Amino acid sequence: MYLDTLVKLTVGLAALMIVIRLLGKKELAQLTPYDFIYTLVLGGILEESLFDEKIKITHFLFAIALWAVLIFLIEKAAKQWNPVRILLKGEPVQLISNGELDMKKFNKHNLEMEQLRSALRKQGVFSLREVRDLFLEPGGDITINKYADYEAVKNGDIQTDASDQEPTSLLIDEGEVKDDILTSVGKDRTWLITNLSEQGYTNLKNIAYCDWSETEGFFVRLYE
Predict the structure, then answer these.
(1) 108 φ/ψ angles, rounded to the nearest 5 degrees
(2) Alpha-carbon dihedral sign for residues 117, 120, 126, 129
(3) pLDDT reading at 192 higher than 70
(4) What tens digit of pLDDT does each residue of 28-43 get?
(5) What percent of the chain has pLDDT over 70?
(6) How many Cβ atoms are within 10 Å of 143's Cβ, its own excluded?
(7) Which long-range contacts (CB under 8 A, 24 or more apart) does 23-30 make?
(8) Radius of gyration of the chain measured on its C-alpha atoms
(9) Predicted model pTM
(10) DSSP state of 95
(11) How far is CA 16 from CA 32, 63, 179, 217, in A?
């Protein structure tokens, strides 16, 4: 019985380490609800197998192996297909655009105004008037783009004529064009290809990262 428990605990720990490797190098705040479900399921499998003598080590190994394979397939599918990633991982939601709060999106995500204000205060923002753009991230935290008048002055900056900056949009991710994002910013592939070609980027597959904003233009990084 003791040997059986030792083997199950060892396998359970090894499985947990494998899952951490499968999930990649994420910070805790970046984990989605589905990532926590993975670990909860492992805990359930391990608990049941430890305290139920009818569950043999072979049964436990099969359950762990099946569980690990399913997680691997889900993570691969989420990386390969954008609709699957959005379904499982979620995507950022812009709640405030150019100072205007989208109440439909706000209510859709069951948010409370004081909850939002509390999250803003943690970032040193005490009034919505400071916020030009606000995004609700998949992990539940928020990111903000403040008006230029409320931005802190950095060392060496002399802001005599500060101007607002549009938020950037990720248009190419690992060689793949984000058509849905292009549509959301009112652009299409023809516009993207033409503008990138003018800057010398003729093969989109070589682009590892490309974002764009109305005020800042393109920021491109190629594969090494």
Answers:
(1) -60, -35
(2) negative
(3) yes
(4) 445 566 667 777 777 7
(5) 81
(6) 12
(7) 23/75, 29/139, 29/141, 30/139
(8) 23
(9) 0.55
(10) E
(11) 17, 13, 36, 43
